[in-house]
């Protein structure tokens, strides 16, 4: 999505992650909207966590933008929003350790997210999940679609 913004309108992004078991098969989904343009994305991994999928959804959406944009990114993940807006500065100051000196999980994804967001002016917005927001619900559907092939593969491996 090009995200040309001569009129100052933001690219609107909704993201979600899903996981069956934690860890387990997981998926991510993202919807990018700009004016009349809309792009839906989904993917997954065979063995992951919900938090990793939440991060991946945001990363993939931001990496899909072909030029610097003003972005409104909506997530139902407090982990994603809190991490990127509040915690990351302290983690970096502490050598990627939490306030209680434990290693930060998913450092490689936090670094990738930071790089993906850097060219853009991103406003991170939290939306309550499973509360009827149509775009959040669609992002959830996409995440589940992204997870589906890995669920099927897991069932096949478990079959007698």
In short, what is this structure?
With 160 residues, the protein is of the alpha/beta class. Helices cover 41% and strands 28% of the residues. It contains 4 helices and 5 strands.
What does this structure look like?
- The chain has 160 residues and is α/β, with parallel strands linked by helices.
- It is built from four helices and five strands.
- A hairpin with a 2-residue loop joins strand 2 and strand 3.
Task: Give the topology, please.
Elements: E1 11-19, E2 24-34, E3 37-48, H1 50-63, E4 70-75, H2 78-93, H3 107-117, E5 121-126, H4 134-158
Parallel strand pairs: 1-4, 4-5
Antiparallel strand pairs: 1-2, 2-3
Helix pairs in contact: 1-3
The averaged pLDDT comes out at 93
| Proportion in β-strands | 25-35%
Question: Helix/strand-derived class?
Answer: alpha/beta
Largest sheet: 5 strands, mixed
Along the chain, the helix and strand elements come as EEEHEHHEH
Provide the helix percentage: 40-55%
**Which radius of gyration do the C-alpha atoms yield?**
16 Å
The shape is globular
Low-confidence stretches: none
How are strands sequenced across the largest beta sheet? 3-2-1-4-5
Euclidean distance between termini CA atoms: 45 Å
Total of DSSP H or I helical runs spanning 4+ residues? 4
Which features does this protein show?
160 residues, alpha/beta, 5-stranded mixed sheet, 28% strand
């Amino acid at each position: 999505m090009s995200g040309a913004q001569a009129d100052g309108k933001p690219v609107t992004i909704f993201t979600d992650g899903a996981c069956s078991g934690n860890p387990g098969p997981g998926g991510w989904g993202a919807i990018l909207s700009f004016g009349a343009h809309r792009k839906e994305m989904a993917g997954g991994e065979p063995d992951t966590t919900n938090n990793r999928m939440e991060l991946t959804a945001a990363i993939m959406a931001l990496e899909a933008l072909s030029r610097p944009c003003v972005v409104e990114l909506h997530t139902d993940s407090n982990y994603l929003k809190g991490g990127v807006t509040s915690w990351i500065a302290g983690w970096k100051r502490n050598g990627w350790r939490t306030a209680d000196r434990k290693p930060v999980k998913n450092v490689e994804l936090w670094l990738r997210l930071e790089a993906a967001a850097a060219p853009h002016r991103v406003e991170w917005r939290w939306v309550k999940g499973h509360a009827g927001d149509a775009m959040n619900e669609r992002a959830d559907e996409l995440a589940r679609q992204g997870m589906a092939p890995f669920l099927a593969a897991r069932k096949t491996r478990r079959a007698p």
